[in-house]
Amino acid sequence: MKHLEDKITQASNLESLEKIRVELFGKKGALAAEFAKLKDIPGPEKKAFAEGLNKSKAALQAVFDKQYEILKAKEIEAMLKSEEIDVSLYGNVAQKGALHPVMETMDKIIDYFVAMNFAVESGPMVEDDFHNFEALNLPKYHPARDMQDTFYFNDGGLLRTHTSPVQIRTMLQSKPPIRMIAPGSVFRRDYDLTHTPMFHQVEGLVVDEEGKVSFANLKSILTDFLHHMFGDVEVRFRPSFFPFTEPSAEVDISCIFCKGDGCRVCSHTGWLEVLGCGIVDPNVFKSVGYEGVSGYAFGLGVERFAMLIHQIPDLRSLFEGDIRLLEQFR
Ligand code: DAH
Fold it and tell me: Which of 205, 252, 298, 302 to mutate to test the pocket of ligand 1 (most atoms within 8 A of CB)?
C-alpha cells in the first residue's frame, strides 16, 4: 500500500499521474488484479478481504485526487506564467500618416472658396474637343492651343489639359447665377523641374446678370485669397491673354523668398506668377447659350502653390512617392 501511495505522490506532472492512474485503477491495473483474487478466497474470509480491498482503494483514490489537485494547480500556474504580458514594455509606435502636400494645399484652397460661398463642381478627366477647347473660344487651328500640349486618344477624345471644361459643363447643366470652383487633375505633355504630365488645378467661375460681376470683384477676391494662402504679400495684376477671358490678367505675388529683392526662384524679378484670370469672353457665353450675363473666371496650378508654400525645388519629387520627402510634411 505504502509503495503505491509513494508512487502517486512522486508523480511530478499530470502526464505521469495519468499513467499511474491506468496502472492502478485501470481495467488491467493493480487493483483489478487484487479484486480478481476474490473468487479464489474461501467463503468465510471473502468478506473481510473485500472490505480491506475497498478501504485500500478508497485510500489510494484519496491520495490520487489530492495529487491531481496539486499537479493541476502547478500546471495552471506555469501556463499563466508563460502567457504573462509585461504591460510596462514599450509597444510598437504606430506611424502617423499625413496628407500629401498637394492635397493639403488643395484643401486649403477649397476651404477658402467654400467659405466664400462657391460650390465645388467636377467633370471627367477624359474630355472631348468641344468642352476642353471649342467652347472655351479655342477653335481648331487656333495658335493658343499650342500653349497646352495635349494627350489625344485615337477616337478624338483627349485628357483634359485644364479644369476650365468644368466651367462649360456647369453652365450647360444649370442657369445663372453661378459661383463655382472645380478642383481636379489635368494632363499635359510636359516634364521638367516645374512640369509633370499630371498635375492639379482649381478653376473658378462666377456668372450673374449683366453688370453684376466686375473686374473689381475679381481683383478683390483673388487678392484676399492670395493673402489667405501666402500671408502678407503684395499682389499685382498684369495684363495677359487667355482665349476664354477678355480682358485677361496674370496675377503675381511679391517673391516670398526674397521679399521682392530678387532671387533665383523669382528669376531676379521680385515677383512670382501664381494664377490666370479675367472677365469671361462673350464667345464662351455664346457657346453655352447664355445671354445678358457677365462673369469672371480664374485658374491656378495647385503644385505651384504647394512648391512655393513648402519651398520644394523639383516638382517631380512630389510624385515619386519617396517616403523621406513625404515624412517632412507630417
Ligand atoms: N485654363 C488656364 C490654364 O490652364 C488657366 C486659366 C486662366 C483659367 C485664366 C481661367 C482663366 O479660367 O480665366 O492655364
Answer: 298
Q: Compute CA distances 156 → 123, 172, 271, whole Å.
A: 18, 21, 39
pLDDT at 330 over 80: no
Which H/E stretch holds residue 58?
Answer: helix 43-82
Residue 51, number of CB atoms within 10 A of its CB? 10
- Our measurement of the distance from residue 263's CA atom to the centroid of its chain's CA atoms, rounded to an integer in Å, reads 37
- Tell me the best of 131, 136, 164, 296 to mutate to test the pocket of ligand 1, counting ligand atoms within 8 Å of each CB and taking the most: 164
* 147 has pLDDT over 70: no
DSSP 265-318: TTTTSSEEEEEEEEEEPHHHHHHTT--SEEEEEEEEEHHHHHHHHHT-S-GGGG
* Domains of the chain by start residue, with CATH: 2-82 (no CATH), 101-329 (3.30.930.10)
Q: What single letter denotes the amino acid at residue 100?
A: H
State yes or no: cis peptide before 247, omega within 30 of 0: yes
Helices 14-25 and 2-10 meet at what angle, rounded to 10?
A: 150
pTM of the predicted structure, to 2 decimals: 0.73
Three cell numbers written together for 206: 462666377
Q: pLDDT tens-digit profile of 19-60?
A: 999 999 989 988 888 888 888 888 888 888 889 889 999 999
Distance (Å) from CA 98 to ligand 1 centroid:
30
